[in-house]
Each structure stands twice: as structure tokens, then as C-alpha cells.
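FAQ: What does the model actually see?

It sees only this:
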Amino acid sequence: MTANTDLAAQLVEVSLTVNLGESPGGGVRRAAGPGAGGVVVRPGLFARLGGSTQVAVISAPAGSGKTVLLRSWIDEAGLAEHAACVTVGRDERDPRQFWLAVVGALRRTVSGSALLQPVTAAPDLDGGAIVERLLTDLASLREPVWLVVDDVHELGSEALPQLELLLMRAPRELRFVLATRHDVRLGLHRLRLEGELAEVRTADLRFSLAEARELFDAAGVRLAEPALGMLYKRTEGWAAGLRLAALSLAGHPNPERFAAEFSGTDRTVAEYLLAEVLDRQDEKVRRMLLRTSVLQRVNGELADLLTGDGARERVLQDLEDANAFVVSMDATRSWFRYHQMFAGLLALELRRTAPGEVAGLHRAASAWFAGHGHTVEAIRHAQAAEDWDLAGRLLADHWPTLHLDGQDSVIHELLAGFPSEASAGDAQLAVLIAADELAQGSLETAERYLSLAERESTSERVDQVRQNQLLLGLVRLEAAHQRGDLPAVTEQAQRLEAVAAGGDPAEPGFGQVLRSLALISLGGTEVWTGQPREALRHLKQGVALARRIQRPFLEFSGLASQTAAESFQSLALAIDRGKQAIELAERHGWGDEPSAGTASLILGVALTYQGRLDEAEPWIQRAERTIRSATGPVTGLVVQHVRGLLELGRGRTREALAAFRAAEEPAGRLAGPHLLTTRRRALVPDALVRLGEIERAEQAIAEFSEEERDSGEIRITTAMLRLAQADPHAAIAVLPPVLDGSAPLTWPHWLIQAFLLEALARDALGDETAAEQALEHALDLAEPDCVLLPFLLHPVSNLLERHVPHRTKHAALIVEIQSLLSGRKSVPASAGPRPLLEPLSGSERRVLRYLATNLTAPAIAGELSVSHNTVKTHMRNLYVKLGAHRRSEAVAQARSLGLLAPGR
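And it is asked to produce this:
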């Protein structure tokens, strides 16, 4: 060992024992006062060492704090006169010297001084004889004495059996605490089976983040949380690494920068690991460690390849057993990694001793990983070797699979690893950069790279033409989908299917993947161009195919778009489908993908239409966070529209208006018609009317073309304006094409608003019968999906008060609307309807409609002209058939099954 490495080891030892300790709650604290000395108080570990077992073993790598733990335990437990401490010297080969040290230490204890006779180092004295003498002298021991042996791994092959003999035959009062860098052969398995062995291992000694923070505080080093977290992650809680970092940071001018750069290449860390770990290995093991340091993970086959030797898996297993900073990554102990600090040292040593071999090692690793299906690692090693052609070819070959498996973030990292000049003149890399720009929401930049790729592709080899067509087709499809360009989506989907029809011997069945992608992309675009039925058909086909060919990311993307399509038929179905998509995403770690944002948006809008505004808010916020980077015009438009709807429902009209106006920018970038185009424009004058800005609303409507003013959405807004102008006749005049369906609406639930406006206008004219009929029509439409938002936007409280139970089929729904209008929350829908146990009779259906009202059972009997007992019988039957225990549960279950809808 050199003087420098001696110093490094001493620094670790001293710094961990002086003026540092740990609070009884588990944290680190300063010593009590001058001269008190510092201890690391770790109650849980102390309990293991001083427990009822006869033997305790501490087995952990160098610098893990074994010696510190021993000293602090002895100090804290007050065992200075009852513990005999022996440290085995480096490469101890003379068992006599060890046993003489043991006898001397035991004689310095209170009990040992009275029982043990001094031993002289006679020439014929051997370790076995000393052990026998110890056993004889200690046979009458009556009080506990601890024999603490540090660095047991340094004992030679002759002394270990002698120590085992003492362990097995010693009296119960003689306790043993052994510290070692790796497990040694002492027959401890028998003690383990008998419950006489306590063990402390690497994970037990590892510092927690809180302990690391207090250790730095005690050393007078103040670090921001991100920097401390980075240091802790890199050291993996290794005591020596943390303390060396604290020593180096003391007085450092830029602690955050130091923390960002700290690794095993730091001088003090490197010197310590070099002396205490690497230099202790034989030449073959050292060579393997250095040559495999280019890997993030290593197995026996890879180690054999990079070293040219055999049986390296066993060596890796032995190194882990020896606590040599080698960690297994699987239950079979076939894959391993190196501790981050040790890996840094190895990489430094390899660059220092064999710099010319580094690129070749990376290239060999790349070939191995590529041949074994580990594409991402193969590309990273090719980049590390600066073999840009190989890295680019590998990425282009496997990009479709990575992309369709939801690994766009990984692709982004890989592309960032290429120098800027590598993409110049490379058509394939240009396509991939275009795809990455799309994933980040940069449509214009993506288009520039696509144009570059198409120009450069003319110079590609013949065998690359088909691959380039596939790459270009996939990226063009995504670009068209983001722009909402249905004709372009259809065209690109058909092209992809044609490319896929040619087959790909390298990836059998990839044509099915492309067909699923084409169907899902087509359906996703049809949703937003007002073709929900066609969209649903294509999406169901695409999702079913994705599920059949086991492509979960495609399935998830399709389910997200299917959520939007389902919302045109049923909000309950859309909520169910959206949660299914989110659950699949979270199961695979895709919760931040734009498709998860789409599903969250539709969940938010469905809950908003049901009047469940507090439940809708977190879903909408999640969508805003998820898709803020994917700023394609379609997603940007939808996000702002949904946010505006929620704010309208809350009565925050100015915030709603701001959201609707913010949607103008993405709407202007759409390549074709979009479902929300007219509706978004109609909501601007809608908000102005609510704000009382009547003239501006009138002007906004006047700016629409004649065709737009004839649309259902604009007619509804115009009726609102006329009512605000106290002209109910004009409001009624504009609504008939909406009510009879000749002016179709892009969203079915807007028809509820039309009937509510009709009811308000008729009521203003004193036509009570017509007002009640219009209100009943609105309730008919609202009942199946419990659509309450229109009643928040157009409160008709007076009409509802007069709409008494015997004149409506929707008494329960009216109660819920009135509760919502009065400020009480609506009853959340159940997670999913359970099927009826038996069909309901006609009488039971009639009673069911009154269950959610405030009417008592006798009052319901009066409304139905039946006896009280008859109603109670029907109610009991309803509870059984609906699987409910209370009235509220029965109502919620009935609504989820659509049993409160008219005509059911």
C-alpha cells in the first residue's frame, strides 16, 4: 500500500469515528462535548450485536463502517471492560500471534483477568493448544464476555478451523462478534439453524438518505437537497464514499458542482478502492474487472468474451460473495453490476492502463447485445465506440419496434448521443430526428427533417429503400395524425399496409403491427373529424388486433382514442374505457405518454358533463401536464376546450373565455376540419353573453358565415343571446332546426341545452305546458348518462320546482339536479355496473323511479295509488335484484344500469 492510500484509508476510519454519532431515533448527532469522542448510535444494529445469540457476524465491503459499528456499540453499551477486541493483521499467517492476541485481550476483561493465565510464545506452542487452554480456563465463566474479532477474512487456513472449534465448544457466557469483508468457512450454518447466529450485512450498514444528510450537517457541509440526493444515489449509502465526499466538500467553492461530478474517479475514493479492493485481486480477476467496466451490467458469457477467459460467471459470483462491490441483479445470479463508485474507479483505471482497448471492448459488447436482442444497450455501446454508422444502422433497424413499444423517451436519449455531424447526409437518422421532434410536439421542425430525409434517400443503397419507405411512412402517419389531416392519415395508412404486405423476414408478423397502427391512427383522426361511428369501428379492430399480437402500447393508444369515440355514445362507457386505458398505461410505465393525456382529457370532460367537477379537475390537470410538450394542434385545441368547459361549469366565465380564446392558435394550425372547430367558436359568444357583454356577443355571431350561423351550436348560442336581450320569441324562432335534427350537432349533449333554452323561452312567454314539455325532453336526454352540466349552464330551478313528481318520469334526476344547483355534490357514479340478479317487474320499475326522491315509502304509495306494504315489498325486491343494502346504493346501481332512463 502506498503512503497516499494509507492516508485515504486512515481518513475514512478517523472521520467516521471522531465527532460523529447517531441520535437514538436513528439519525446522526455530534458528540456530547470535548473529549467525549463520537459514536454512531444505531439501536437496531446494536440490538443484534448484543442480543441473546452467541455469535454475531458483520459481513460487508471495505469502508462500510464495520469497525465504526463495533467501536460505537462497545462505547454505547458500556462494554469496555467486558469486551476483548482483536484486529487481525493483513495476510495473517501465523496463528500463534493471533491466539496470543486473543488471550491478551481476554485477560484485559474483568472476568478474563481472573480466569486466564498468561501465555508465553514458546517454540512448541501452537494455536490448537491455546484454544484448548482457553476452553479449560473459561469453563467456569459466569458473566458474559464478548470476543470481538475484526477483519476475520485475513485469517489463514490454519487459524480458521481453530476459531471454529472455539465457537462450537465455548461456554454460553462467551459471546462472539466477528467482522469480515466476506463470509469465511466457520461452520456458521449450524448456528444459523439453531437460532444462535445474528447477521449484519451490507444492506444493514448502508446509510439512509436522512442519515447521510445529518452526517453532512455534522461535518459542517451544507448541501441542497438535489445535490445531496445525487451524492447519496451515487454512493448507494456506502459510508466511506459519503464521508470522503464530506471531507472533500469542506470548504469547496462550488458544492453543487462537486456533487454533480463526484464519482469513483475522485482521487481519495479512487485511492481507497484501489488499495482496499482492486489491488487485492489476482491478475486475472483484476483484468476481468477492468475490461468489463465498460458495461452497465455483465454476465459470465460477456465477461468470457471481453477477457478471452472462461468460467467468469463463477468469478463474478465469488466476488459478490466476497463483498467486492459486485452486486447480482437477478435471483439466478447470472447478471451482475458493479457498485457505482467502484465502476467509476475501474473505468478510470482502464483508461489509464489500456486506453487503446476501450473502443474495441465497446464494439464487441455492442455486437453481443445486438445478437442477443438487447437493442438499446447495443446502440449505446456502438455510440461509446464512436462507431456512428453502426449505431445509426442499429437504431434505424429497430426504431419501429421501439416506437411502437412506447419507448420514445429512450429513442430521444439515444438520438441525443449522436454528434450533430452524424446526421448530415444520413436519410435514416434524419427520419428518426423528425420522429423525435414530433414526439416533442415540434411539427415544423419535424417537417424540415422529413424533407431532408426524402432528398437524401435517393442516394441510399437498394437494400435500404424499403426500410426508408417504412420509416418515412410511420413518421408521416404520425405527423398527419397530429395535424388532424384525415386524408393524409388515410393515404399514409394505406401506404404502410402496402409496405407491410411485402413481409419482413427479420420480423415476421410485423405487417400485423402496421395494420393495427393504421387502424388506430385512422380511428383516432375520425374521432376529431365528426365520424364517431367509423372511428369506433376502426379503433375496436385495431385494439383487438394489437391485443392478439401482444402489442400493449398499441392497445393502450387505441383504448385512449376509443375513450373519445365512446363518449359520443355513453359517458359511462367512456369513463370505463378511459380508466381501462390509464390502468394499462400505469402498469407498463406509460402514464406520461400523450395517449394517457388523451384518455385523461376524455375522463375529465365526461365527468364535467356529469356535473362531477371536483372529480374532473385532477384528470384535466393530469392531461395538461402530460401533453404540454406534445403541442400538436389537435391536442392543444382539445386541452383548451375541455379546460374552458370545466370553468364554465364552475361559473368562472372569464377563465373559460380565456381558455376558448387560447384554443384559437392551435385551431389555426389544423390541416383540415375538426369536430371542435365550430363548437369552440360558438363558446366565445356564449361566454360573452354570460359576462353581460351583449354587444360583443352580437358582433361575434355576426362575424360567422351564413353556413356557420345555420349550425346547431351557433343557433344555441344565438338563442342564449336573444333570451339575454329579453326576446324569447326570437330565441324560439332560432331553435326548431336544432330540436328537429335538421341542424345537426357535433356533440349530442348540446341538444339538452337547446331544450332547456326552449323551456326558458316558453316559460318567459307564459306557455307553461310547452315549457314543461321542453324540460321533460331535456330530462329524457340527460337521464341515461346523468348529464348535469347543461343544468349548471342554464339553471332552470323554478321550472324544476314546478315539475312535480306526478308530471315527470325523472323525479330522482330532478332531486340530483336540485342538489347540485344548491351547492351539494352529485352522487359519484359507481366504478362499474353489476348485472341484475333478476329482471325487474313493471311495478318494481315504477317504484324504482321514486327511490331517489325525498318521498317516504307511504308518500310513494300515495303517488302510485297502492298500499304502503306493497311499496315496502317492491323496495325489498329491488334491493335484492340490484345487489344493494341501502336506498342510495340501489339508486346508484339502477342509474349505472340505465334503469332510470325513459322507455327502459
